[in-house]
Write a structure and sequence with these properties.
The chain contains eleven helices and 20 strands. By secondary structure, the protein is α+β, with helices and mostly antiparallel strands. Strand 16 and strand 17 form a beta hairpin.
Length: 439
């Protein structure tokens, strides 16, 4: 089946407000007065942009939402509330229509004073943490490639698992266990899942093909379905839907992003249509160490794209957003820079409402930082209280870097960084981990 003419993409795009920290509960509670106000503003502006109307209704959780129609009266967007942000559900569309579909959304958001990121006091625009799930399927069961070729679903899950650079640079900030987009090996039952994929592979090799619902039933006891926060999730690949919910996508910043992430998925699935069997799941013992750094992920992504027809450099925006440069404060160094790194969060406790997780208490004192320099023949010396791990110096192209994992002391939050050449300090800087700025 021709994927470009049949595979649809629907998004759950998220927005917040520039000064979100001034509104109690805005990013932790679904229903707040300010959130209702901004939902209405966004719905009004969308209706103006589409030359349509908006009206109030209830979502599947019985929360208030707004439906926005176009000039023909057909509903295009749903503006809903989410614990982390305002969420907008987009209409399904083919890959070549994703950018034009999303364009009015950002025009309306700008007029409604909504943004697709969280501003932080130290100058970084971070993820909304509300997610931007990508739902892949079809307009009808007859034209849904995943319904007609259910083996693609299994091939896709194995393929993206085996390539962390297709996951970590695009997802939200909550890396690792208990996140919103957990890899199969970030959950304890990975061996059982791995064996299940191997069983499916052997079944397919023997000539046995499973129907769509049979495919769901085959994997229903694995964490791709039992854990809502799986990446990708097969929870919706069942009777009545038959969608892949690809949760490994942080909120888009512009309409072009919608095309980039969709085009990448189309090309992967086109490749998998030619692949005879699903891949065996690989293990990554270094997954949350060197392989979860900006330059190593980018290195692997660049190498991977050589087999595809993708505008590689355009994807760098996702890597830069995930690992932003921290250059706030005074006495910012010129010969090296520090990037906010990613490490699995340390969760103190989880708050549930029934079976639904409504909040997680995170210990913010656990951090990872990456120090990058393009200076030749240099060493990087790091001094701070609470350093748990310090990598060796790694390199990619003309950049040398190392990273540290640290549990910093709030009473002594200073990180001293010295760049040396031939034993002499050529530049030095003091970074305050508490306020994330240079001193």
């Amino acid at each position: 089946m021709n994927l470009r003419k049949n595979l649809t993409f629907g998004f759950e795009q998220t927005f917040t407000i520039s000064d979100w920290w001034t509104e109690p509960g805005f990013t932790a509670t679904s229903d707040t007065p300010k959130k209702r106000e901004k939902m209405l503003d966004l719905a009004k502006e969308l209706a103006i942009e589409l030359k349509g109307k908006y009206f109030e209704s209830n979502d599947i959780w019985d929360h208030m939402q707004y439906e926005v129609t176009d000039e023909s009266g057909e509903t295009q967007f749903y503006v809903t509330m989410d614990p982390g942000s305002i969420e907008v559900k987009t209409p399904p569309c083919l890959v070549d229509k994703t950018e034009s579909m999303a364009a009015p959304l950002f025009i309306a958001a700008e007029r409604a004073n909504c943004v697709a990121y969280r501003n932080w006091w130290y100058g970084v625009q971070g993820g909304t943490e509300g997610g931007c799930h990508v739902n892949m399927g079809g307009y009808t069961f007859e034209t849904n490639p995943l319904f007609n070729e259910p083996e693609l679903v299994v091939k896709y899950a194995a393929y993206v698992h085996n390539r962390p650079w297709l996951h970590h640079p695009f997802m939200g900030l909550d890396v690792g266990p208990e996140g919103n987009a957990m890899r199969m090996d970030e959950k304890p039952e990975f061996l059982e899942v791995k064996n299940k994929f191997l069983e499916y592979r052997n079944l397919y090799k023997s000539g046995k093909k499973l129907a769509p619902q049979e495919t769901y039933d085959f994997f229903k006891d694995t964490n791709l379905i039992t854990e809502k926060g799986s990446y990708p999730s097969l929870y919706k690949f069942k009777e009545g839907l038959f969608l892949i919910e690809d949760r490994g996508q942080e909120s888009m910043r512009e309409a072009r992003d919608f095309f980039l992430v969709s085009e990448m998925r189309v090309q992967i699935l086109e490749h998998l249509q030619k692949q005879e069997f699903s891949e065996e799941l690989l293990e990554f013992p270094n997954l949350h160490k060197d392989e979860l750094t900006q330059l190593m992920l980018w290195k692997n992504f660049v190498q991977w794209t050589k087999d595809f027809n993708l505008p590689t450099e355009e994807y760098k925006r996702f890597f830069l957003r995930q690992f932003p440069i921290l250059n706030g404060g005074t006495n910012v160094p010129s010969k090296f820079e520090i990037h906010d790194g990613r490490r699995p969060r340390v969760i103190k406790d989880i708050v549930k409402r029934g079976d639904v997780v409504v909040a997680k208490n995170i210990d913010p004192s656990f951090k990872r930082f990456e120090i990058h320099t393009t200076e030749l023949s240099t060493s990087i010396k790091l001094e701070a209280e609470g350093i748990e791990f310090e990598s060796s110096v790694l390199s990619f192209e003309d950049t040398h870097f190392k990273y540290i994992d640290i549990k910093y002391n709030q009473d002594n939050p200073l990180l001293k960084i010295s760049l040396k050449s031939e034993g002499k300090v050529i530049e030095q800087g003091i970074f305050n981990i508490q306020n994330m700025t240079w001193e």
